[in-house]
Amino acid sequence: MDVSGECGGGILKEKVLVVMVVKKVMVIVVVDIMVFMVVLLIMAILQVVVVVAVPVEVVLLVMLMEYFVVKNV
C-alpha cells in the first residue's frame, strides 16, 4: 500500500470524480435557480398585468357604457 503512484492516482481519480459531481450539482442548482427566477418573473408580470388590466377594463367598460348612454340619449 506504500506505492505512492497508486495512492496518488486513486486520490486524483476521487478528486476528478468529486469535481465532476460538484460541477453537475452546480449546473443543476444554477438551472433550478434560473427556472425559479423565470417563474417568479412570469408570476410578477402576470400580477402586474392583472392589477393593470382589471382597472383598465373597468374604465373601458364604464366609458363604453357612457358612450352608448350618451349616444342613445
How do the helices and strands line up, and which of them pair or pack?
Blueprint: H1 4-72
Describe the structure in your own words.
- With 73 residues, the chain is an all-alpha fold.
- The chain has 1 helix and no strands.
- It has one helix at residues 4-72.
Which features characterize this protein?
73 residues, rod-shaped, mainly alpha, membrane, Transmembrane protein, transmembrane helix
Overall mean confidence score, pLDDT:
84
Per DSSP, the total helix count is: 1
Helix content: over 70%
Low-confidence runs: none
Give the total of beta strands: 0
Q: What's the order of the H and E elements?
A: H
The global form is rod-shaped
Q: What is this entry, summarized?
A:
With 73 residues, this protein is mainly alpha-helical. It is built from 1 helix and no strands.
